[in-house]
Amino acid sequence: MSVMKRELGKSGIEVSALGLGCWAIGGPFFLNGLPDGWGDVDDAESIRAIHRAMDLGVNFFDTADVYGAGRSERVLGQALKGRRDQAVIATKFGFVFDETTREAGGTNLTPSYIRQACEASLRRLQTDYIDLYQCHVGDVSEEQASEVWAILDRLVEEGKIRAYGLSTWDVAYARAFLANSRGVAIQHGANVLQDAPELFDLGKEFGLANIINSPLAMGILSGKFHRDSRLPADDVRGNPHAWLAYFRDGKPVPEFLDRLDAVREVLRSDGRSLVQGALAWLWARSPQAIPIPGFKTLAQVEENCAAMQFGPLNQSQMDEIDRLLKEMEELRSRGA
């Protein structure tokens, strides 16, 4: 299988153009009292899926200490035992959680906590270094920022991390981070249904990696949801988190289903599945884009990895998607 490559910003670290997001494999946990996982998960299946991804050329795995309240990191560390040198690990810090109760809530960005969190992640991942360490709190205040980036620089100097980045949705915070730190990546949401042009522009301007979460719009781009679909209460998408964009009251937001209907056939061009077309759109959108779709099964990983065989959409396909989405928005604005 052909493997597309990307450089992780200016870090000198080469990664597969497709990564795997490891939120779902952490299993159930709670954020501020609400379920924040993706339902029950089978650790053995997660490990088989990670091994299969590596066999298919994927070497980039993105997790966070809070996912499953530590469980995601533990599972990833177990999966990479004996193969650590073949993998690039990205993890995140900033949310406070209890591994025993699986409850998360609140944040801590003090230098002492960041060092403590890094050491804990190293133990769970069974490694002595983290390739990319990301601040999970997207709105780092100006007062906190200099201390946060300074401790991350020290962790680089000590060899505990190789590079660092920021996970954010906010253009102003991302720009301040890039202007005042040695960060090499920003992680943010983007997909064919909801673009992030200003964040992509920052990636180009600063020569950094755009690590793309929600590349499949939290599953809408799989094509398996319809207007009457309802997610269970143990699924993050079935809960009233204020930041959820694609689901409301456990149901997919109709606007995104309409957008998918408008571009469905273009995404499926050249024999791609919808999922593969959505990933292809991101690779065409930016040469810095590294999508990290989530997974719970080996079959999902195989479908994701097969997208690299097709590569990015071509310019005429991208233009057609733009035209279809603009046409749909014009009709919506006229109330048609």
What does this structure look like?
With 336 residues, the chain is α/β, with parallel strands linked by helices. The chain has a domain at 14-220 and 286-312: NADP-dependent oxidoreductase domain (TIM Barrel), CATH 3.20.20.100. Helices cover 39% and strands 18% of the residues. The protein has helices at 43-55, 71-79, 111-125, 142-157, 171-180, 197-206, 254-267, 274-285, 298-310, 315-333; strands at 5-7, 14-16, 19-21, 30-31, 34-35, 60-62, 88-93, 95-98, 103-107, 130-135, 161-167, 185-189, 209-213, 247-248, 251-252, 289-291. It has an eight-stranded parallel β-sheet. The chain is globular. The N and C termini lie far apart (45 Å). The model has no long low-confidence stretch (mean pLDDT 96).
Helix content: 25-40%
Q: How confident overall, as mean pLDDT?
A: 96
Quote the CATH topology of the domain at 14-220 and 286-312: TIM Barrel
Q: In oligomeric terms, what are we looking at?
A: single chain
- SS-derived structural category: alpha/beta
Classified by CATH, the class of the domain at 14-220 and 286-312 is Alpha Beta
Give the spatial strand order of the biggest sheet.
3-6-7-10-11-12-13-16
Task: Name the overall outline.
Answer: globular
What series of H and E elements makes up the topology?
A: EEEEEHEHEEEHEHEHEHEEEHHEHH
N-C termini distance? 45 Å
- CATH homologous superfamily annotation of the domain at 14-220 and 286-312: NADP-dependent oxidoreductase domain
Largest sheet report = 8 strands, parallel
What share of the residues does DSSP label as strand, in percent? 15-25%
Tell me the CATH architecture of the domain at 14-220 and 286-312: Alpha-Beta Barrel
Compute the CA-based radius of gyration: 19 Å
Number of helices: 10
Which residues form runs of ≥5 with pLDDT under 50? none
- The total count of strands amounts to 16
